[in-house]
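Work Package 3 (structural annotation) set out to generate three-dimensional models for the target panel prioritized at the project kickoff. During this period the team completed the workflow that converts sequence records into discrete structure tokens, so that structures can be stored uniformly alongside our sequence database. As a representative example, we reproduce one entry of 175 residues exactly as it appears in the project archive.
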Amino acid sequence: MLPGARIISDLLGLHSADVAPALQVSYPPFDPQAVREPLLKELLSFWLARRDNRGALPARADIRPAAIKNLLPCIAIADVIDAGRDFQFRLFGTRIVDDAGIDLTGKSWDDAPEAEDVIARSRHLVKTGEPYFVSEIKALWSPRSYKSYQSLALPLAKDGKNVDMILYGVVFGCA
């Protein structure tokens, strides 16, 4: 180890294996009232209506595309792989593709620019089963003139409790 490297290693929390500690992130509880963008509010209402009276999470089978036809361009659906180790998109809406300048259909978050935060949020969602909403997310990589977006992520579970898919609603250029 180089002189001084041990001090830096200790300050950064690196240990004998020189591996960075796991990032500890705290997320606020989901607040449905924070979702104000009309398309995302509609998606949230649709998802909430599919939860059963015990609060079980809806499954992919509960979502009929014809019922949310106007939302489809702003929707992405990802399979949860290995309890959140990875996420593979089976659907990436056309408006998201146009606005983001990337189509992740058949790909994972690892194929997206600057995806570390969304991966962490998605893993938290898988662990807790709680939706999340974020707004004013910087998208400097977007080919469009606006540089931010809002995202609503909603858990789906075949068994009503173990998240196996995530339904994302994404809208660019909102205030």
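The mean pLDDT is 81.
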